[in-house]
Every structure is written in structure tokens, then in C-alpha cells.
Amino acid sequence: MAYTKEDFKKLVEDIQSQDWYKNPIGFGIARVDRGQLNPEKILQATYPLINWEENYGSAAVLLNALKKAGNNVDTSGSELVCSVSDAFLAECIESFRPYIPEAKGDAHKNVQVISALSSLPIDSGYTADDYKVVFIFEDTDAKSVESAYLKLYALSTGKAALRSLNLNGIFGQLHNVAWVGNQPIELDWLRENEITLKLSGQYPSITKVDKFPQFLDHVIPADNTRVLDTNKVRFGAQLAGGTTVMPGAAYINFNAGTEGSVMVEGRISSSAKVGAGSDVGGGASILGVLSGTDGVPVTIGENTLLGANSCTGTAIGDSCILDAGVTILPGTKIALSEKAVAAIKEINPDKEISTSMKGADFLGVNGVHFRVNSTTGQTIAMRSTREVKLNADLH
Amino acid sequence: MAYTKEDFKKLVEDIQSQDWYKNPIGFGIARVDRGQLNPEKILQATYPLINWEENYGSAAVLLNALKKAGNNVDTSGSELVCSVSDAFLAECIESFRPYIPEAKGDAHKNVQVISALSSLPIDSGYTADDYKVVFIFEDTDAKSVESAYLKLYALSTGKAALRSLNLNGIFGQLHNVAWVGNQPIELDWLRENEITLKLSGQYPSITKVDKFPQFLDHVIPADNTRVLDTNKVRFGAQLAGGTTVMPGAAYINFNAGTEGSVMVEGRISSSAKVGAGSDVGGGASILGVLSGTDGVPVTIGENTLLGANSCTGTAIGDSCILDAGVTILPGTKIALSEKAVAAIKEINPDKEISTSMKGADFLGVNGVHFRVNSTTGQTIAMRSTREVKLNADLH
Amino acid sequence: MAYTKEDFKKLVEDIQSQDWYKNPIGFGIARVDRGQLNPEKILQATYPLINWEENYGSAAVLLNALKKAGNNVDTSGSELVCSVSDAFLAECIESFRPYIPEAKGDAHKNVQVISALSSLPIDSGYTADDYKVVFIFEDTDAKSVESAYLKLYALSTGKAALRSLNLNGIFGQLHNVAWVGNQPIELDWLRENEITLKLSGQYPSITKVDKFPQFLDHVIPADNTRVLDTNKVRFGAQLAGGTTVMPGAAYINFNAGTEGSVMVEGRISSSAKVGAGSDVGGGASILGVLSGTDGVPVTIGENTLLGANSCTGTAIGDSCILDAGVTILPGTKIALSEKAVAAIKEINPDKEISTSMKGADFLGVNGVHFRVNSTTGQTIAMRSTREVKLNADLH
Questions:
Q1: ipTM value for the complex
Q2: Where is the 2,3,4,5-tetrahydropyridine-2,6-dicarboxylate N-succinyltransferase middle domain (chains A, B, C) (predicted)?
């Protein structure tokens, strides 16, 4: 008797109705890189596909297959990491059967992953234990390298919003390793083999030493996105389509990034984000919560220009300009002429604008041009010449 | 009967006198990298040699050989791109015959290219169609990837002056691709193969995603030139011998660069150029025409020091100093003492110098030291201590 | 008759008592990379182990073995470079015999090097002449690539203190070459083979052109040290354990670095050093003796914060803060209120503090917060909020 899509639907409903079952927040299957000296040490987890608040049918199939394959499937914890087994794959293939013929291109990606796993050549160098089925049920501290990577993937693929995830525990879970491109190497292995490797001319070309890989090691950007130097974007950063990251003084840390087409020639520190159409000038610094801000993550609005070597430690609105070299911290005293107050008030009718403000007072204020008067050295604000889209609700 | 150099000369004259013939501005033979999914998409063109306003004899031989090999040789368009064929190569070899024995080292490079092409091993992985003979007859918008690369080569080899070429259309012609070092990969190919590549541990180490390759992917710098990080110089930039590009915050974009021995630790934006003996300090920013200037490309003179984290949006003369952290934009108001006016006037007798100037007023003014008075915050200019070579014609 | 550790000790004493013998400052055995065109040109020297003011027993054995193997062992010069030979290795093995069984892990590293050299496979691609035994007897100008590398290793492994070595002659000895990761290539070889390499698709992916390799090409950092981009740390730099070097605008040149756990997001120029617990903010510049300082190498104290895009050209004490964007050069005039003078004096009782100081006057002054008053543009100093450890000897 043929097993149909209708049967698949019933299977999923049946699984989801069982007591032990719980929908995960995110899940996926990863290939792990293990320590050269200590194979118990997971150095990296590579996901061909991740699911985040989606594809619960596939989640049900995978959890059910793990259970049938004899794994202890405990959905009461915050996460679950199981090794792939032949029994698990066979069960998945059986359940996914009606979708296998059409699992191509963008369709049924989870089915594609199972098919690809099932048909890996025997001499791939990896064993079933190098593939992990990973579920996150609660967004608490990461308890494994695999779940830490799953969260970073959720951010870097744009499936989870910046600042929306609990990233505690990630630094603790990841190991500091040497990288040769996207291949991690234990530092201790290098130490043990340094003499032989160096004398025989086999010492590897280390490209970095860090806990994190790069964004481009794991994520394929949109066609109109450019990253001119892979070292400039850490894994866990988010780049909206149309973003360009230049190789001069740019850097985007994890849990930071862009929400639209942005030119990035400066630094976007962890927790900071920049709106569509904005320009982070050469060497401009957007500070992170750990240094120079008042603890509030910095948001830069849309269509705003941060000039070369400017520095921002507090929120800046839409259509603003910071002149090259200007620093605005939360406590920076900024003077406005009566004319400037009126002009800025006109486009920000619901905001308090006065002749003497601090950097932090400009939260949500649009169309401001921050300058240093080169005659007096005074930091001033005036109406920006950049077009401001007025909020229709306010008028 | 022996074919001699005299015969070659007559051949060239004969070709050049024909109606259809026209001397090209530039020409060369490129190997092209094609899309992995779409082989019609040219991802990169690599020229072992380019000719720019030179070697018209070789141009005549190549155009004639294309014609004899049956190509439609239309010299009335702005450019011509033809595939190499055995007939073309045979015809070239025949014409170049007297030069082949002495085509070694720096002699007869075009003949060397033809010889090398003729003797490529059959299993090189490339076909005749992967080699293109390319001519530019008019400096209009690039109409192909091959001609776009030829122009970028002309700039990066120093055969064409910075700002001298029409670069419109280059962004449109080049495809945004992933790079593994100097190998371009279609993003769509990565997407189609992501699951298999990642599961099998074959996902490539992407080094960047951009339309342009790097300068060092195509050009061998002078013996006294240093580029400490290939990501810091885009293809299409120009580096005069003796230039050093440091890996901190430096970047040199295409159609920008140096005209002599320059220490570069900061950014030289597209269209900007820096004279011999100058020093672009750590994090210093020279703005491009698209951001912060008044639309005039910025030229920095000779023997000038741009201090760390300074920012320049307007022309600066010879033997000037910008103090670290100082920003000079076209509209920046700058104060000069009477003494400073006199001292600067002394070495710039033909310039208007006054006690109140703007940044843009210093065009062509030499020997100026720009500072911010740390007591008053005022931006000031005084006589620089750097030696100024006076223009003998003026005295 | 068994040769024992006691015999080894006697052998060493005997060698050391001979007239010709002299303890070296540093020594090691290097594998050298030779020029592709000119094999006499040494492009790089890779040491699996270096000794610096230590392990004089091994030094004696190596010098003695060279002598017995027929080398001209002249210890009266500043350095000695000899090729390895089978006779030399046999003599070393004989002398080191009692230590060979226990030469594992961290024990008897020099013995391990000799053992590894003796058991290199015959087809390693290297000959005995590619291995050099190198000694430095006097810290004068480097006279060979091998001794230049030995000094840079001494700095980068932390065995010699920053600024403690004579580095003259190093630039002169090292050749400017193209690098493909850690493999050096003569520029002339690239030029000679450019046509064939490019046409056949074999042109290498050059990663930089410089005289120096990178720190990570030769040194394995501590487990808690991170270098997020290998290009950011030149060989000859020193990184104390716990240092993190970010990939934005950071750079650490040779003979510069950190003396404890430091976050580095800015530039540490040659000759500059930074104390434990300090933070070099994004784009911050610490100037080197060649640009912007008064010729005194800049030392940054412990627990000090240099804000983003700040610039320092003079010594800064412990527990200081430079606000983002602030520049302090030796001659910068800095104003202090009476209250600030008193508060700073309190924790620096032995220093001259007044209401008008210059940057250079703050040498050894702790707990200072440098700012620019955003209302007046004046550069001011006040008491920093960072905790200052008072010197117990002074109280």
C-alpha cells in the first residue's frame, strides 16, 4: 500500500500529539569537526540547513526517528544533541518517502539533507558519529558547541533577529583554535607536532586563532551583498541583502549587523545594528555595550551617514549625519541654535528638543546633523540635509 | 625564401594601411574563468600581458590573424573580443617568426604569449574558447568583462594614469562572486551544492565576495613595493614603486593610489591619489568623490604627512602636515595668524592666503601645517616644518 | 661502557672550558626556504625551537659537534651559521644519547629537534644544506637572514623583552618576497613565469608581499590568546597570554606588543608596548618612534583604556582613560581644574601636577582621564574612574 503525503501529515499529527513531544525553537543536522588530539572536543559544527521557528513537520519526523532508533529523546531539557545512525536515517527516509522525488532546488531542504546523508560515500572520512541531530527547545544558555552554532546560524542566516537570542554560554562552549581557512586545528596538536611539521615543511598556514569561524565559512550571502575580506565579518553577524563590507577598517562582530542595504567601512560592535540605506564611513566606530556606551545597545537609523573616523556610543535616528571625526557619546554635551531647535522640532514633533542636549537625548530624533564647529571647537547639532520620511501617523 | 624582420615590418605597414584597420588603445590576450553553472558567464579575465598605447605592430598582426582565421573583425565599435583558434595562433606564429628565437625575458612579450598559448598542454583543462583576444578602440563604457579587466590592468600596471579612463559600466559588467583566493565561484553554484559540500567536508574556504579581484591576483609589484595584506588593495588601484601598504586600517580602492614612494596606513578612496614621499598615517581617511568631498577628486601632494586618524576631503599641497585626528573638509573654516599668513605666502607667492580660509581654499598651497588648537578647539593653519621645494619658475 | 647523564655533564664542562668556546646569547636549528631562481637567496628561516640565554649544555654539544664534523667554528664573530651534515647529526646523537628516550613532550626539546632531523624521510624535498645551525654571540647588527629570524623569534616567543634587542640590519637582510600563506616566492620568479602561470591557470594566490612573515606563521600563541586575522600581527611582535587582536583596524608591528592580557582593536606601532588589563579601542593609534612622538617609545600602562579612534604619541600611565577620538601628542596642551590637580596628585604624590600641562608631562602619572570638553573644544584632564593600585612603597 502506497505511503502518501496524506499519510505523512497523519504521522506528523500523531507524533505531535504524543506526550513526550515538544516543538523545538530550532533544529538541524550538523557535521562536526573533532579535535586532532582529543576527538571528544568538538571544534566546529557545520549545518547545511537550519530551521528556526519553522518546519515543525520535519522536526517531528526527526525526533520520532531518533526515538525509534533507540536514542533517549528527552524534550524537557533546553536542547538535545544525538548522533546520526543508520536506523535513524532509514526511519527518516521511510517517513519522508513521498517528498523524496520532489526534494530539489529550494523544495524540501530537510529531505535533501537526509537524502544526501544517506548517500555519502563510505570513504568520506567521516563516521555516523560525526553527524549530529540538534534541537533547541528553550532559549537558555547554550550547553554544547552544536547548539551554540545553531544559534549563531539563526542570527547569520537572518532567521532570528539581532539581539533576540540568549547568547550566554557561547564563549564558554566554543574552543579557542587555530584555523586554516575553515578548518579548525587544536593548538595543542600544533604544539605536539611543531618540530616535525616545521622541519618537514608541513607547518600549516594559520589564518587566525579564535573561538569563532567567519560568517563566509558558513553562510552564502545574497547576490547583491559583498564582503571584501572574510576576516571582517565574524560568524553570528547578520548582513541584510545589499550590504557591502569594505576591507579597510570595517568589522562586524557576532550579534551585530545591518537591517538593509548598508555600506560598511567602519566597526559595528557586538549588539549594534544599522538601518537600511545608511553608510558607516571609513574607520567610523559604533560602540558595543561593553565599551563607551551607557549599556544600551546602539541602533543607527535608516539613511544615516556616519562620517569617516566618527564615533557613536548612543542611538542615532534616521536621516542623520555625523561629520567625519565627530564623537557622540551618551554624555556628550551638544549645543543647538534656536533655529536648529525649531528645524529639528518640525520633523520630530513629539520629541523634546532644546538648545542644550546630551548625546543620549537624541534617541529617536531624526534628521540631525552633528558637527564640531571648527572655529569654537563646540559640538553642535543642526538640521540635516538628508531627506526625512515623516511618520504618517504623526501628521 | 626566408621571412625576415624587414618582411614583418612590411606586413605590419600593409595591414595598417588597409581600410578596415584601426590602431587600438589597448589590447591583450586573456584566459577567462567561466561560471560553474553558467559557462556563458565570464567571472574573471587574466592577462599575462597587456598593451596600452604601444606595440601597434603586434596589434596589427593579431587583428590580421583574427581576420584570416575567419573572425568578424569590426574595428568600428569601441571594443572587440574574439576567441582564440588554432588558425589564429598559426597565423600569428607565421607572422612573428623572425622574433620567436629572441622572445625571452623582457623581449617581445606578445610573441612569448603566442608561443606559450601554442604550446599549452592538451590537458590544461581549458579550451581555445577560454582564451580571448581583446581590443579597446575607444574609451567608452566597457561592454564586456574582458574589456573591463583590460582597463583595470591598464590602471594597475601604471600604463594608464589614474583618473584618465572611462570606468563607467565596469560595475555593471562584473559579476558578484565568491572567491577562494584568486578563483571565482558563482554564488548560485554554492547554493546548489551547499548541502553536499558541507556534509562531505568539501565546502570551500571563501576569502571574499566581491565583483573585483585583488591587485596582487593580477599584478606583480616592483621589488621595493610592499602590500602586507592582499585584501588591502583592490584590482584597478595603482601603486608606484616604493609604496608600502600596511595591514591595519589601510585600503586602496580601484582608480586610486600612489604616484611615488608612499607609506600607506590609511584609506585612499576611489579617485584619490597621493604624491611621492608622502605618508598616509594609521587610519587616516582620504575621501572619495562620493562621500564628503565637494565632488572634486582629492589629490595629496608630495612629501606630505597625513597624521593618524586624520581625515581629508579636499586637496592638500606638497610638504604639508595634518596633525593626528584633524579633519579638513572643503567647508572647514580654518584660522591663520598674521604671522602664519606671511610665512605661507612666502612659499606660495601666487596664492591668496588670508587669516580666515576654508579647506577648499588650500588647493595648490604648499607647506601648510593643519592643527586643532587644544586650548581653544579652533582649527588653525601655520607654516609646516617640512622642507618645501620652491618652484624655480616662480622665482 | 654506558654513556650516562654524568658523562654528558662532564662532556659539556669539558667543551665549555676549551679556549675556542663561548656561550651564545641565542641558538637554534632552522629549515630555510631558498629562492626559486636564486637558491643562494634565503627567503625564510623556520625554527622549530629557539634558545635564548638558556640551555647552554645543548649549545656546547651543538658547537662541539659542528667542530668535530669539520666546520670552521669561529665564536669570535657576532654570529655563526653552519649547514647541518650527517657527521654533525651523528655526533649530536652520540652526545645526547642518555636523554633521547625521555625527550618527549616538553622535555629536552633540543634533543627532539636533533632526533627529528635524523629521522626525516629521504624524500622530504630538502637536503642537509637546507638546515642551518645558528648561533648569536653578540647582539650586534644581524649579518644573515638566519640570525635576523632568530632575533625575531626571541621577541615573538617572549624569550627576549620588547626593545631589548638590536634590530638594526634586519630590514637589510630580509628580502621582499611574495607570500602564498607561509610560503615565500621570489618576485623575479613570478615575473619570469607570469605568462605560463597565468595562461595555464596556475598563477598562485598571493596573500601578501613583504620582507616579514606573520607572527602566526612561526609562533603558536597561548591557549587564551586570539588573533582574529593573521595579517594583523607581524612576525617579531610579542603577544602576552590573554591578548586578543581584533580584525577591524588593529595592527601590531615587530618589536611591539602586549605585556599582559590586552584587548587590541587599534594599532601598536613598532617600539610601542601596552600593559596588562588595558584596552586599545577600535582604530586607536599608538604612534611609533618614527612618526608623531618625540622619539621616546610609547609605553601604555596597565588597566588603561584608549578609546575608539584616539591617538597616543606619548607615555600614558596605569588606570587612565583617553576618550574616544581624543589625541594626546607630547606637545598637546592639556588644562586641569584645581580639583583635578588635587585628585590626580593624591594618587601620584611624587609627580608634578599643575593646571597647565603638556602630553609629555604625564609620563608615569596614573589615573588620568583625558577628554575634550565638547562645549569649549579644550583638551582637559581629570581623575579617571578606573581603580588605581597605589604603589605600596610610596605610602
A1: 0.96
A2: 174-213
Count Cα neighbours of A124 within 13 Å in the Cβ-side half-sphere: 21
Contacts of residue A245 in chain C, CB cutoff 8 Å? none
Beta-carbon contacts of A225 under 8 Å, excluding residues fewer than 6 positions away, are A239, A240, A241, A242, A243, A244, B176, B209
* Residue A225, min C-alpha distance to chain B (Å): 8
Task: Catalogue all structural domains in chain A, each as residue range(s) with its CATH number.
Answer: 5-174 (3.30.70.2010), 176-213 (3.30.60.70), 215-394 (2.160.10.10)
Main-chain phi, psi angles of C327, to 5 degrees: -115, 125
B193 Cα to chain A: minimum distance (Å): 10
Give Cβ neighbours of residue A151 (< 8 Å, ≥ 6 apart).
Answer: A26, A136, A142, A160, A165, A167, A170, A236
Q: Which residues of C are catalytic?
A: 265
Nearest residue in chain C measured CA to CA from B372: C377
- C-alpha distance from A17 to closest chain B C-alpha (Å): 31
Q: B307-323 pLDDT, tens per residue? A: 999 999 999 999 999 99
DSSP, collapsed to helix, strand or coil, labels residue A187 as: helix
**Concatenated DSSP letters for C136-201?**
E-S-S---SHHHHHHHHHHHHTTSS-TT-S--TTHHHHSPPEEEETTEEE-HHHHHHHHHHHHHTT
- Which chain A residue lies closest to C279 (C-alpha atoms)? A291
Residue with the three cell numbers 565638547: C374
Picking from B248, B281, B324, the nearest residue to C251 by CB comes out as: B248
Please report all neighbours of A, defined by 3+ CB atom pairs within 8 A: B, C
Assess C125–A contact: CB distance below 8 Å, yes or no: yes
Task: Please give the biggest Cα pair distance in chain C.
Answer: 87
Chain A residues with beta carbon closer than 8 angstroms to that of B203: 46, 182, 217
Nearest to A299 by CA among A254, A256, A237: A256
In Å, how far is C392's CA from the nearest CA of chain A?
A: 30
Q: Which of residues 344-373 of A touch B (CB under 8 A)?
A: 372
Q: Sign of the CA dihedral B319, B323, B324, B325? A: negative
Q: pLDDT tens track of chain C, all 395 residues? A: 579 999 999 999 999 999 999 999 999 999 999 999 999 999 999 999 999 999 999 999 999 999 999 999 999 999 999 999 999 999 999 999 999 999 999 999 999 999 999 999 878 889 999 999 999 999 999 999 999 999 999 999 999 999 999 999 899 999 999 999 999 999 999 999 999 999 999 999 999 999 999 999 999 999 999 999 999 999 999 999 999 999 999 999 999 999 999 999 999 999 999 999 999 999 999 998 766 677 789 999 999 999 999 999 999 999 999 999 999 999 999 999 999 999 999 999 999 999 999 999 999 999 999 999 999 999 999 999 988 765 554 44
- Neighbour count for residue C123 (Cβ, 10 Å): 6
What single-letter DSSP state applies at residue A97? G
Instruction: Say yes or no for a CB contact (<8 Å) between C311 and B305.
Output: no
SS3 B49: coil
Which pLDDT score, from 0 to 100, does residue A77 have?
A: 97
Residue C96 and residue A280: Cα distance in Å, rounded? 61
**How big is chain A, counted in residues?**
395
Distances, alpha carbon C60 to alpha carbons C12, C14, C151, in Å: 6, 9, 20
Q: Which of B209, B232, B379 sits opposite A227 (nearest CB)?
A: B209
* Residue B123, SS3 per DSSP: coil
Interface of A with B in 200-219 (CB under 8 A): 216-217
- C236: which 3 cell numbers? 617579531
Query: Across the beta sheet with C257-258, what order do the strands follow?
Result: C257-258, C273-274, C299-300
User: Which of B171, B309, C368 is closest to A281 using CA atoms?
Assistant: B309
DSSP state of C338: H
